[in-house]
Design goal:
This protein is α+β, with helices and mostly antiparallel strands and about 110 residues long. The protein is about 20% helix and about 45% strand.
């Protein structure tokens, strides 16, 4: 009886694991922080707790500052951002990038 119960529990866990893994990819994630770097269509965001998250931009990514749509060229290191992204296999695809209301100050050259 004990062996059958153990087998039932093991089978239930084994069948439920793939559903739990797939459920993680099926919803929108959000990251808040500042732009650490921009390299082509890759943007690295340094989160408020110090982690770096890389997201990919594509033609469908909506980039805005307030209610105004802006171009990807507006993404500069130091900009405050909020990024909504979907995890697709091993990549984070950005759906929306919201820039802070005021642009990051330009670096002063001396």
């Amino acid at each position: 009886m004990n062996r059958m119960w153990l087998t039932t529990v093991a089978l239930t866990v084994a069948l439920s694991v793939p559903w739990a893994v797939r459920a993680h990819e099926g919803h929108v994630h959000k990251v808040l922080g500042t732009v650490a770097s921009v390299q082509g269509n890759h943007v690295e965001v340094k989160t408020t707790d110090g982690k770096v998250v890389m997201v990919m931009l594509d033609a469908k990514t909506a980039i805005t500052r307030g209610k105004t749509k802006v171009d990807a060229t507006a993404l500069k290191a130091g900009e405050r951002v909020s990024v909504d992204y979907m995890q697709d296999k091993s990549m984070n695809m950005a759906q929306a990038v919201k820039l802070g209301e005021t642009p990051a100050p330009a670096a002063v050259k001396k």
